[in-house]
Prior knowledge:
Layout: E1 2-9, E2 19-23, E3 26-31, E4 44-50, H1 52-59, E5 66-70, E6 83-90, H2 120-129, H3 145-152, H4 162-171
Antiparallel strand pairs: 1-4, 1-6, 2-3, 2-5
Amino acid sequence: DVTLTVSASADLSRTSEYVDISLNDVPVGTLFVFNGADCVVPPNTDSLIVSAAVYNGAIDGGDAVIAMLPSDGLDPGVCAETFVAVEVSYLTASNRADCNGTGVPDECENLYDGSGSVDLGDYRFLVRCLSGPEAAPQPGDVACESSCLEGFDFDGDADVDLKDASEFLRLFAP
């Protein structure tokens, strides 16, 4: 999800004085309807959470143009200085599991180091996953345990042992 945090010092004390927010001409919400005040320092602050699906659909792989449109009831002459500012925040790849340490979220990679082949980058991850027979992998990050099994439990017995390492070596292409 994407959070839009808007700060404003303006004529915002009545419910008829608010700011409509749109993203690339797609309306996404209205702020300051019930929590604004006129010309305050520090400025009024309100937030809007836009789902990742709506945000990504609106930008469609391009730029994000955020429009902040005042209601008809908002009078720009009430305050000596009127302004509106927006801060955009969202989770990035650094907030997701990167069990193999490549800097790319694991769900975005087709193999464990993202190279497209079974190689030394994948071997480094295999070593972290080796657990022995009938023992769950302990890669050092709980979020990575399932990745170990998905990537290296070739025989499907819920561990990463020497049988699995043998199959990995058969696929290995340095």
